[in-house]
Amino acid sequence: MLSVIAKLLKVLNSENEPSQISLAIGFSMIAGLTPFYSLHNILILLLVLVLRVNLSAFILGLAFFSGLAYLLDPVFHWIGLHVLTAGLLKGLWEVLYNSTIWRLERFNNSIVMGSILLSLIFIVPLCVLTNLAILKYREHVLAWIRKSRLMHFIKASKFYATYKSLSKLKGEL
Amino acid sequence: MMKWIRWRGLVAFIGIIIVLSGLWFLFIDTFVERMIEKTGSRIVGAKVELADADLSLFPAGLTLKGLQVTAPEEPMKNAFEIDRVTFSIDTLNLFRRKAIINEMALDGLRLGTVRKTSGALPSRTARAPVVSKKASKKVLGKKFKMPLFEVPDVDDVLKKEDLESLRLAESLRADIKREKDNWRARVQDLPDKKKVDEYKARIDRIKKARNGGIEDILNATSEAAAIRKDLKHDIKNIKGVQKEFEASRALLKERLNRVAKAPDEDVRHLKEKYSLSPKGVSNITQIFFGEQVGKWVERGLIWYERLKPVLERAKEMKKDSEVIRPLRARGADVRFKEYEPLPDFLIRNTKASLELQAGTMTGEIRNITPDQDILGAPLDFVFSGKSLKDIQSIRVTGTLDHIVPSIAKDAANLRVKGYRVQDIVLSDSARLPVTLKNGLMDLDGHLAISGEKFRLETKSTLKSATLKVGVQDETDLLATSIRSALSEISGFTLCVDVYGSLDKYDIRLTSDLDDVLKRAVRRLVQTQVAQFEKELKAAILERIEAPFKELDISLTELGIIDDEIDKRINQLDGVLGDVSARSLLGNKKFPF
């Protein structure tokens, strides 16, 4: 059982370049902040799986942003409603409203619109900032963590040995 | 670029989609079933249960089997039960989030069926049904109370009440005593025997002057004139006093007469006070059937409130766009102009067979949608049945027009002919339960709801009727009297007129039963009133008898004062008769 979980983690963590992690966090923000059962989340899932992004980071980010979305729902509603009822955009919304695919997307829901809009605005800054943060982390904090007592304790566990042997085997192959 | 592509991820994606689709196929029926049960229970406020749900994709449609909707007020009964519901959905519009059902069939629709288990929601999960507070308040309803008809005990009444006759008698007794004392004192002051003797002494002195000279005679004549004047003055005074006395005595006599009549006034007042007037039991039909009719009306209005979300949704306009708040969804859906407008939910035509105890009624409901303003057509329905087991014919039609929600108009008509009624509880009052054992009824009804105002008018004619009336207490005179009157009735008409607003309305019931029942009750009331009156009068007279006799004697005693005054007048009159110059001086002749 331990070896199966270790194998899964190994696969998931194989893409651990800072850009792969930060892009995964960006995708998780869209999927987490917007209503989960939305059409665009199928596309996000496809991108997350097909592009070499870090899946662990995506899953962690999804859990974090889903929780955050509960707090931000009133904000999404307020923004979404204002955007959807803005006179300037009325023509555009009418065209989309009469399109089947956009109706399936439920763009006319205030929370869907608000959350997508905010996610799209923040995805680029989030990716850039996360990328920088990971680089700084690896440069300054990682070495200190590796020397910490907690890390020593983890490394001594049976689970870590299995994880390590699998990594070694993969490297030899 | 290729280093960014993870081809195994594509396989995983396809795998996930396949797995999800498989799970969907496996569990969607259960999911739909649970969703219908959960949402339905929340709307109704009692258990909504479904035996089975079957969702098909090609063509898109749904079949529901064994749908039971509990009546919230009676958890051991279903408001209705449907054996099978089948419909197909317009697939293309479904992708546009529009549930358009062209044909729906409801087979085996039954009302008021008995449940095997209670349909009440557990208190942990029970939530208030989607009914306005106004409607839920109405459950309390109006209570029509039949007046208690008890002849009060005369002794109890007299113990509690202050009798006007006794009060008058007491006051008169005190006044007579005071008057008596007053007149006794005044008579004391009148000229008495001593005064008469004084007059006689003066007369004697005149008589002695007869043998004197001219001067004596002249003095005597002058003295005689003075005596006459004094006497007349005294007599006049006494007569004045006598007149005053007579007036005072007359007043007292008049008051005594009033005391004599006072018991009648007391009886009239007490009779009214203890509600023994026949006018207290007017409109007996209202009292009799009002509560039951009130319950039916309340139940109907509660269901109307429950169904309202099916006809109208909460919408608001915001900058030319319509914002709709769905029953259960987060956020708000903004609706824009559609090139081909269609409601979000629409059942164009529903065919239903309603299974009653009397037989099967068939009917159609057209245009079920919460967006009548978009469809531009009202919901209308028609149900009918002929040659049923106990009904010659029945037809229900109606239109629920919410195209412009602010001026919504709903109307329904019901016509029943030859309905053989059996064991219908007309009044479940413990005091006077009435059951219509059997009869043949024709019924016409019309309901109109406009905004918050509504009016329901029905007229039922019952022939060959047998009424069973149970009386809890045989000493309850009103109940026994009504039973006796109803046992002679074989037919009647009952008109129900309910009007007002949905949260405050009046129920007016009229029936030719009114006359029959009123006559019976009036007869009873009159008999009882006469008896009560007789007993009350006798009791009051018994109480007033002694004081009255005492008053009479006291007033008679005042006659002694009158005699005394008379006596004194007579004495002075007698003296006055002796005081003429001739009688005093005899035949004495003057020399000139």
What does this molecule look like?
The complex is a heterodimer of chains A (173) and B (592). Helix content of chain A is 82%, strand content 0%. Chain A has one domain (2-164). Chain A has ten helices and no strands. Chain A has helices at residues 2-12, 18-33, 39-50, 55-84, 90-97, 100-105, 110-140, 142-146, 149-155, 158-172. Chain A has 173 residues and is mainly α. In chain A, helix 1 packs across helix 10, helix 2 (18-33) packs antiparallel against helix 3 (39-50) and helix 2 crosses helix 4 (55-84). Chain B is an alpha+beta fold and 592 residues long. Chain B has three domains: 9-120, no CATH class; 154-278 and 534-584, no CATH class; 281-325 and 339-524, no CATH class. Chain B is built from twelve helices and 16 strands. Chain B has helices at 7-44, 91-95, 133-138, 154-160, 164-189, 193-208, 214-273, 284-311, 372-375, 477-486, 513-578, 581-585, and strands at 48-56, 61-71, 74-89, 99-111, 315-318, 321-324, 333-335, 345-356, 359-368, 379-386, 391-401, 409-427, 434-450, 453-469, 492-501, 504-511. Chain B has a 13-stranded mixed beta sheet. Chain B has a three-stranded antiparallel beta sheet with strand order 5-6-7, with no helix packed on it. In chain B, strand 12 and strand 13 (434-450) form a beta hairpin. In chain B, 23% of the residues are buried. The model of chain B is unreliable at 126-142 (pLDDT under 50). The chains are: A mainly alpha (173), B alpha+beta (592). The interface between A and B is medium-sized, with 33 and 30 residues.
SSE arrangement:
The complex is a heterodimer of chains A (173) and B (592).
Chain A: H1 2-12, H2 18-33, H3 39-50, H4 55-84, H5 90-97, H6 100-105, H7 110-140, H8 142-146, H9 149-155, H10 158-172
Helix pairs in contact in A: 1-10, 2-3, 2-4, 2-7, 4-7
Chain B: H1 7-44, E1 48-56, E2 61-71, E3 74-89, H2 91-95, E4 99-111, H3 133-138, H4 154-160, H5 164-189, H6 193-208, H7 214-273, H8 284-311, E5 315-318, E6 321-324, E7 333-335, E8 345-356, E9 359-368, H9 372-375, E10 379-386, E11 391-401, E12 409-427, E13 434-450, E14 453-469, H10 477-486, E15 492-501, E16 504-511, H11 513-578, H12 581-585
Parallel strand pairs in B: 4-8
Antiparallel strand pairs in B: 1-2, 2-3, 3-4, 5-6, 6-7, 8-9, 9-10, 10-11, 11-12, 12-13, 13-14, 14-15, 15-16
